[in-house]
Amino acid sequence: MIDLRSDTVTKPTPGMLNAIMEAEVGDDVFSEDPTVNSFEQKMAGMFGMEAGLFVPSGTMSNQLSIAVLTRPGDEVIIDELGHVFNYESGAAAHLSSVQLRPLKGKNGKLSRQLAEEAIRPKNDWDPHTRVIAIENTTNKGGGVCYSREEMLELSNLADEQGIFLHLDGARIWNAIIKTDIEPEFFGSIADTISICFSKGLGAPVGSMMLSSADHIAKARRFRKMWGGGMRQVGLLAAAADYAVEHHFPLLEEDHRRARLFAEAVDENPSFQIDLSSVETNIVIFDVKSAMAEDVLTEFSDAGVGIIPFGPKTIRATFHFQVGDAELEKVIEVVRGYGN
Ligand SMILES: *Cc1c(COP(=O)(O)O)cnc(C)c1O
User: What's the pLDDT tens digit per position in 159-171?
Assistant: First the structure.
């Protein structure tokens, strides 16, 4: 199957497996894994943050960030399409006793105005607005990127209000490739960042929380409490490091292929797509008359995996294990649909 269901479906390459084999390891719960320690420092340096914490998933690095930034009864402002709001099993309510305030932004992005209007006064009876959580690129929003200006406006708002900015950067790598914004910029606007190595970068496991040394020390304790303290995990850090070094530049090609796919979708009258929102490796489109499930079945019979993102909405996601030959076959299936 040509698997466009997600960019998480990639398998480790021989080069990556070799990096795993060669990794020097130690017990990371004792902070003694040299591969993890140097990788955390490397990523923190890259993004202009003091420290990093290697964790099993992006959900954990998002939730650790919320846990260290908030107190029970606080409120976190987020776009209604946000991963933290839709795909983390209600974790913020359970783990941090905070409520999420979903706002209707555009393509999963918040604007300064929208966030500003949602910040509450500081009465005893008000939930205290503590964090603005943004996602870059947006997943459910279709892989769009924030501009430098949009992020600065939100960061300035957070500073003026004495509240925090969290950046869910599961696909920050795609945003960097697309916008040419240097990684350190993200460290300058955000208090906490979550980055993932297991999406388009193609590592089997692994995400990282980046923040101040203080916040990371607190997060380290929560990680252990939540069962995320790992032992000789340099094996996975080595795979993640390999992914950053070797797979990061390949994202550009994923974006090019996603664009060609989206154009083919646009040319088929059975589908509806907003081409202007296709910026990176994610393509979201609607089915006009049939249901998404019917299209999925037909694509699946033709050997192409895609997923439903609503009753009439479909998502296709490109990654480096779908090359030009596969793209050609996929485009044939798109062109053939309904004809
Ligand atoms: C995938 C993803 C995450 C984290 O997912 P895990 O499966 O927990 O690693 C977080 N945010 C966004 C936007 C994502 O796409």
Answer: 999 999 999 999 9
Cα separation, 122 vs 325, whole angstroms: 58
Residue nearest to atom 10 of ligand 1 (CA): 58
Distance, CA 338 to ligand 1 centroid (Å)?
Answer: 33
At the topology level, CATH places domain 250-336 in Aspartate Aminotransferase, domain 1 (3.90.1150)
Q: What is the pLDDT of residue 30?
A: 98
Query: What does DSSP assign to residue 275?
Result: G
Cα-to-centroid distance, 126 and ligand 1 (Å): 30
Q: Helix, strand or coil for residue 133?
A: strand
Beta-bridged to residue 109, according to DSSP, are 106
SS3 183: helix
Cβ atoms 232, 26 nearer than 8 A: yes
Closest CA to 235 of 42, 31, 27, 61: 27
Fold of 14-246: Aspartate Aminotransferase; domain 2 (3.40.640)
| Interatomic CA distance for residues 322 and 327, integer angstroms | 7
Both tokens of 51, joined, read 């420290």
Q: What residues contact residue 336 under an 8 Å CB cut-off, 6+ apart?
A: 302
Q: How many CB atoms lie within 10 A of CB 229?
A: 16
pLDDT, mean of each 10-residue run, the chain (339 residues): 97 98 98 98 98 98 98 98 98 98 98 98 96 98 98 98 98 98 98 98 98 98 98 98 98 98 98 97 96 96 96 97 98 95
Q: Is 196 in the pocket of ligand 1 (CB under 6 A)?
A: yes
**Ligand 1 atom with the shortest distance to the CA of 62:** 10
Whether the model pTM is above 0.85: yes
Report the pLDDT value the prediction gives residue 109, as an integer from 0 to 100.
Answer: 98
CATH 3.90.1150.10 boundaries in the chain: 250-336
> Which residue's alpha carbon is at the smallest distance from atom 14 of ligand 1?
170
Predicted confidence at residue 339, as pLDDT, reads: 81
Centroid of ligand 1 to alpha carbon of 35 (angstroms): 23
